[in-house]
Amino acid sequence: MSITITDKPEYDPIADYLIVDAYMRWAMEAVKKVIGEDGLKFILQKASLERFIDDPPSGEMTVSDVTFREYASFSAALINHFQRPGKNMVMRMGRESAQMAMSFQRALFNMSVITAAQTLPASVQVKMGLVAVLNGFKQLYEHKAGQQFIAAVEERDEHYAFVMQSCPFCAGKQSESCVGWLWEAVLEESARRAFGKFFDVVEVECKAKGDPAGVWLVPKEPSDESYNQSAR
Hints:
Blueprint: E1 6-7, H1 21-46, H2 68-82, H3 84-104, H4 111-116, H5 122-144, E2 151-156, E3 159-164, E4 173-174, H6 181-195, E5 202-205, E6 214-219
Antiparallel strand pairs: 1-4, 2-3, 3-6, 5-6
């Protein structure tokens, strides 16, 4: 099935939010590993991000002038051009971003406490991990960018739901399908690295579709990665 992501006709204030410079840099580096320097340049041009070709964002945990709109446009250009391989590249961006964040932002995401929780039941582990991610991003964006990060972790039967209104993955974009695969990959890779287990994360609501928030369901128990729904 073809996937098309376009700009919303109406103004989306979330698109003007600022994102951490390193997050954009990590995304670009992950894509460059797959399609090379020339391929990255082509995608930046498709996304109207020519300003990053010769002057990429820093790899620092700083907030300058990179917006949620630009971050979403980069992913959208990959998906629109490459389709299924583009989705795979976006998920690679998510996995590598999670790895980098857990290496360079351990204190922000309270990794010492999460690591110590490995003897607890899986459902407790995953909830602690999701709450740590939520609180880390709230602290990061409110302190560094002066922006309110609106999100929550909710309990829904056999799952936890990560509900994000301040979503950078489709800011200013619209589509007929959910497009938050990057965050699926971030949550899956974070759990894998923290607990050594696979939790099959699936987005079920998306702001690109007109939903009020992006909603990712995270099972309370780990599963067999061969049944990974988001990789299909």
